Amino acid sequence: MVYSVRITQEWRNGAYVNQGRISNIVRDSQGQHAAYELESWSYGAWEANLRYSTTYLPNRDTQGLLEQRVNNAWVPTYRSTYSYDQFSTETGYTQESYIDGAWIISNAYRYLTRYNASNDLVSRVWQYYNTTTKVYENISKNTYGDYQSITLGRSLAPPSWLISSCILILPPVT
Q: Are 47 and 39 spatial neighbours (Cβ–Cβ below 8 Å)?
């Protein structure tokens, strides 16, 4: 069973007081969060402030969209994208702010990744996006090597005599 609302309360003067609520939680077919709303407790009622939605793309990339409640309408605030390659290695992140009707990159980085013929990671160059020059700049490089193949000599499963002699004692339910 999964929850569809979560309330956060703060301890004040000997009592819990409502602070925030995540509601209208929507999950996709894999159980991942697809959307939810963030609300604040204001003058005795919940007030919707933000809405976040996530799209999981077939190529493993994820895109998120944050919207702000303005005059009873949802207005885009920022969106983010995480990118991955065919080996599920992260290749980058982009955050864009919605300003005057256009998406502007406010933060981004990427990895230039190289693999050998055995699909072992060989190197990753980290580049950060300069929002002034609008160009990716090299920050650092990691080089990987000395790969070793490990073969296990015996099974890691416990022996059958140990399994059959175990007794499980559960604490009483209160």
A: yes
pTM: predicted TM-score of the whole model, two decimal places: 0.71
Please enumerate in sequence order all residues whose Cβ is within 8 A of that of 31, keeping only pairs 6 or more positions apart, or say none. 2
DSSP H helices, the chain, are 160-164
- pLDDT tens-digit series, residues 95-132: 999 999 999 999 999 999 999 999 999 999 999 999 99
Q: In terms of domains, do 76 and 143 share one?
A: yes
Number of domains in the chain: 2
Q: What is the pLDDT of residue 28?
A: 86
Q: Please tell me the predicted confidence (pLDDT) of residue 104.
A: 96
List beta partners, residue 82.
62, 93
Please classify residue 173 by burial: count the beta carbons closer than 10 Å to its beta carbon, then call 0-12 exposed, 13-18 middle and 19+ buried: exposed
C-alpha to C-alpha distance for 75 and 90, rounded to whole angstroms:
29
pLDDT of residue 173: 55
Amino acid 46 reads W
Do the domain assignments include residue 163? no
139: domain CATH number? 2.40.128.720
Token digits for 73? 């309408």
Q: Which amino acid, residue 48?
A: A
Q: Domain check: are 61 and 142 in the same one?
A: yes
